[in-house]
Specification:
Layout: E1 3-4, H1 7-27, E2 33-39, H2 43-59, E3 62-68, H3 74-86, E4 92-95, H4 105-111, H5 123-131, H6 139-150, E5 159-163, H7 170-179, E6 183-187, H8 194-198, E7 203-206, E8 224-227, E9 231-232, E10 238-239, H9 244-247, E11 253-254, H10 261-281
Parallel strand pairs: 1-11, 2-3, 2-4, 5-6, 5-7, 7-8, 8-11
Antiparallel strand pairs: 9-10
The structure holds nicotinamide-adenine-dinucleotide (NAD).
Nicotinamide-adenine-dinucleotide (NAD) binds near residues 163 and 191.
Length: about 280
């Protein structure tokens, strides 16, 4: 029976640490601010934006919301990003994805100042992550690393499988595991023998976006199974990419959905915003 890694608890600890530091900065007269931009009326995006604003309140970061209508043009959004880049109150800029189809997401990501890119999606920051010299890590993979660390799991030399190769989760996830000296295999929609590859892994990170994709027969006894997926079932319930009930009987460690990686993503966003504020102020410790 697997030990369940409690993301809510670890996220609460990370946020408490951020809060302490944010308050310490305030004592020096330094305020920390996050601009959150949402375009259109996507209900899931609204939920994410509200959670991010709530987390800002919890840790003492000022949040500035810019809710723009669906018909906002790319030029209008680029103009706002330019203003936020220059805004002294703003340490981090988060543009909630997905954007409406008529806006090129990459054009927007590329326009965000790398110094304020607390999602770490800008090519400059992606490159820095590749060479292992970074100020910000992308929030979800960084949250996964924090969960693994919290459970005292050593990654050096381990066989890790990441299922999914998105720019936001799969690819940076693989890179962070590699930085910890794991041997990393990235599986995706065209991978052959996925079951065979997974069932040999010491650590499996699932970021597929398909409910119950990872089943017990794909998991080695005692493996660490981290579930990044967020899927909504027809009955409205949330579930991950891992068949939690089946896999928990076989794995050594497992993260639940909800209450696993999700809360960590937001906690790491707070951590990145704090890091940006400290960098701007020239504070190193
Ligand atoms: P994505 O759709 O961009 O990527 C999914 C990946 O899964 C692709 O790389 C694809 O190759 C792979 N894939 C699809 N079908 C496959 C199959 N049959 N076999 C093997 N691989 C397959 O998604 P994403 O943005 O990387 O997100 C993945 C999941 O993680 C989604 O459920 C998303 O909601 C969730 N997510 C959660 C958080 C969080 O905070 N917990 C953050 C980001 C994404």
């Amino acid at each position: 029976m697997a030990e369940i890694i409690n993301g809510k608890e670890v996220a609460a600890r990370v946020k408490a640490e951020v809060r302490n530091e944010v308050l310490r900065l305030k004592e020096k007269g330094i305020d920390t601010g996050l601009a959150v931009v949402i375009v259109g009326n996507d209900p899931a995006s609204r939920v994410y934006v509200n959670s991010k604003k709530k987390a800002c309140e919890e840790v003492g970061i000022n949040s500035y919301e810019y809710a723009l209508p669906e018909e906002t043009t790319q030029d209008e959004l680029l103009k706002l990003v330019g203003e936020l880049n220059a805004d002294e109150r703003v340490d981090g800029i988060l543009v909630q994805l997905p954007l409406p189809k008529h806006i090129d997401e990459n054009a927007i990501i590329n326009a965000i100042s790398p110094q304020k890119d607390v999602d770490a999606f800008h090519p400059f920051n992606v490159g820095r992550i590749m060479i292992g010299e970074y100020n910000f890590l992308p929030c979800t993979p960084a949250g996964v690393m924090e969960l693994i660390k919290s459970a005292g799991i050593e990654l050096s030399g381990k066989d890790c499988v990441v299922i999914g190769r998105s720019n936001i989760v799969g690819k940076p996830m693989a890179m962070l595991l590699l930085h910890k000296n794991a041997t990393v295999t990235i599986c995706h929609s065209k991978t052959r023998n996925l079951k065979e590859i997974c069932s040999k892994a010491d650590v499996v990170v699932a970021a597929v976006g398909r409910a119950n994709f990872v089943t017990a027969d794909m998991v080695k006894d005692g493996a660490v199974v981290i579930d990044v997926g967020i899927n909504r079932l027809p009955d409205g319930k949330l579930c991950g990419d891992v068949d939690f009930e089946g896999v928990k009987e076989k794995a050594g460690y497992i993260t639940p959905v909800p209450g696993g990686v999700g809360p960590m993503t937001i906690a790491m966003l707070m951590k990145n915003t704090l890091a940006s504020s400290k960098l701007k102020a020239g504070i190193k410790d």
